What we know:
The protein is α/β, with parallel strands linked by helices. It is built from three helices and five strands. It has one domain (about 10-115): Rossmann fold, CATH 3.40.50. Helix 3 (about 85-95) links the parallel strand 4 (about 75-80) and strand 5 (about 115).
Amino acid sequence: MAKADVDLCFAGAGENCHLAFNDPPADFDTGYPFIVVDLDAACRQQQFGEGWFPTLDAVPAQAVSMSVRQIMKSKQIILSISDARKAAAVKAALEGPVTNAAPASILQTHGNVSVHLDPHAAQLLETRPA
């Protein structure tokens, strides 16, 4: 268990609606604050497609991430998402049911989340952010 509180968490979500590399189906229950996660094929393809790696084979199969439960313990969460490729994930995260199949959807249950979207990422939302 983490010994110190987390005041602020900056997180991102992916095309598969992962939350900080917690790919679906995400483990919402683990008590470990930091975990090694397996990156699914969609997540790895996204990393390559965004130009972070020269080839798909160069994208790591695993990453170290803050666990979902630890993210949710943060006093404040800032979620930043851009790109039209993530529009369906944004809709699932903000307007869909809370499910580990769309890990970022868990943020709907947190009382202090600030969501920052570009117009492309927000394009499928029923309620457009101001």
